[in-house]
Design a protein that fits this description.
The chain is mainly alpha-helical. It is 82% helix and 0% strand. It contains nine helices and no strands. The radius of gyration is 20 Å and the shape is globular. It starts with a helix and ends with a helix.
């Protein structure tokens, strides 16, 4: 092999590595900004309505019900946990925090993991016992999401205790994605409104339909699939593979950004 060919391959490999890192950072920045906006929206709305005693404005399905203490506790835990999840998860992703403040990173991770488990349990209660919207497929999709939260969280904790930090970070990323499923759902849901100018593939009255079934599973399976493609591109040599993965990440982030814009302008900011 000539020196020129080797040089060209090295240069292409360097460009591919740079592009892959840039695409990952682009996704990271968009995700953190989007999750912080969502956390601020949830915290401000529910805190202000609670202070005013306007619990009737908690208008998601079977929200606050006067006299139903157990169910209302699950609702409060669900809302409070969602805010903590968004804030703690965003901080956990910042590499500077992980590297410079390892003790804080560990404790924040424990709070994040515990809160995610509480959130998933409260969500299951609301789904199966409180009477959430959607058909059986939606309920099963939500249940699988909770199981994946427990699985990925347990594996991330296991490898952290074993001090296998490379494997731990990979499971922590999977954990972050499955915990953020409802956030991804909102992005995809409002992106469909932006594209189709109204409800698509579901009945807005009964909140049932093939699109919602797809989104219930896709909200975590699609991000997990994208992550696995990214991790494989990192592990295996091949400039073209990494360039293709970088392009996919850039495209997915742009699509996610469009969904963020749609849901923020339609629901969060107002």
């Amino acid at each position: 092999m000539s020196t020129a060919v080797m040089t060209n391959r090295l240069e292409l490999g360097s460009v591919a590595d740079t592009m892959l890192k840039a695409a990952a950072r682009f996704w990271f920045v968009a995700t953190v900004i989007g999750q912080l906006i969502f956390a601020f929206t949830v915290a401000s709305f529910y805190a202000l309505t609670a202070l005013r005693g306007d619990y009737h404005k908690w208008n998601f399905t079977n929200g606050y019900v006067p006299g139903f203490s157990m169910g209302n506790t699950a609702v409060v835990l669900h809302v409070a946990s969602a805010v903590i999840i968004m804030l703690a998860g965003a901080v956990q992703l910042v590499p500077q925090v992980r590297n410079r403040f390892p003790v804080f990173h560990r404790w924040n991770g424990r709070i994040y993991m515990l809160t995610a488990v509480i959130l998933s349990v409260a969500g299951l209660y609301m789904t199966w016992f409180r009477g959430s919207v959607g058909d059986l497929s939606v309920h099963l999709g939500s249940t699988l999401n909770a199981v994946l939260i427990w699985l990925c969280g347990g594996m991330a904790l296991r490898y952290a205790l074993a001090r296998d930090f490379k494997t731990h970070r990979r499971w922590a990323l999977r954990f972050f994605l499955v915990v953020s499923a409802s956030w991804f759902f909102r992005i995809g849901f409002f992106l469909s409104f932006l594209i189709f100018k109204g409800p698509f593939g579901f009945d807005p009255v009964t909140f049932r339909g093939p699109f919602l079934t797809f989104m219930t599973f896709g909200q975590y399976l699609i991000p997990l699939a994208v992550l696995e493609i990214y991790l494989r591109a990192q592990d295996r040599p091949g400039a073209l593979r990494r360039l293709a993965t970088a392009g996919m990440l850039f495209l997915m982030t742009l699509v996610m950004g469009a969904g963020l814009f749609a849901v923020a302008t339609a629901q969060w900011v107002p």
